[in-house]
Amino acid sequence: MQINAESKALLKQVMARLDGFLANPWTAEMEPYQIIPNVYYVGNKYVGCYLFQTQKGLVLIDCAMQETAYLLLESIRKAGFDPKQVRTLFITHGHIDHCGAARLLQEYTGCEIYFPQGDLFFLTDRRDLILREERVPEFQVTGTFSYDMAMDFGNFRFRPVHTPGHTPGCTSFLIEADTEQETLLLGLHGGLGLNGLSLAELEANGLPLSLQQEYLGSLERIIKEPVDIVLPSHASHYPGDYFAIAAQNDGSGKALRVPGMWQTLIGDRIRQAKELIKRDAQAAG
């Protein structure tokens, strides 16, 4: 199978942006902010990283690249916490921009690391799938996720959901967050990127062609969840200016409780996935 022009252009765009931040990590810097009480955005302009102050210690979802780790640590400090107190790191999938700083963080904090079962082979015999794998030191995985079983951290319950496609093990999170007034449902999709999902790219990478349909199917299931607040893994995936909306938030979450935001985010990717599947079908004749 030949990789079509659209897929080549998308991959080139994704890798160019990644390489730009790897070469000039300071350009990704942004101020952390409180989303709701006990939940903070501590990522950068490129990758979303989220800090949770739970009753069982600090939990971090994704850690971005090793090159931007100093930005992550500084954002945690600015949010009012000692980064050495991070106890648990959840990694959504095995690409460099989500797990690149895992070893550094593990050495610095001694944190436990939970990783998707379906992406474990990225860390062993297929390190090339990490993307720029030479920049990702090996790290120790504490455990993998048990899907659709909530991990209870007291004031937060993290429910990992298997959403394959972007990678075989890509994991999303539906998070029940207790506030003084109510319990909110936070939604974080672990990997909405369409790069690598054409049939030709899947074949070239030695990955199951079924991932394309699995991606669409998982989106069609998770879109039904009654998410109150969206935590994007990449703000650029939202079809609008997510950071502009977040800038209006006062830390209570009110500005981010946009009706239908989850459905807008996921629905846009369903549309793009269907277009990709249609292009592949037309190419196959």
From TrEMBL:
A Pfam family assignment: Lactamase_B
Recorded hits in SUPFAM superfamilies, A to Z, give:
Metallo-hydrolase/oxidoreductase
- Under which name does UniProt file this protein? MBL fold metallo-hydrolase
Q: Where are the transmembrane segments?
A: none
Q: Which organism is it from?
A: Candidatus Copromonas faecavium
Every Metallo-beta-lactamase domain range = 46-234
Domain of life here? Bacteria
Gene3D superfamilies xrefs: Ribonuclease Z/Hydroxyacylglutathione hydrolase-like
UniProt xrefs under SMART domains:
Lactamase_B (SM00849)
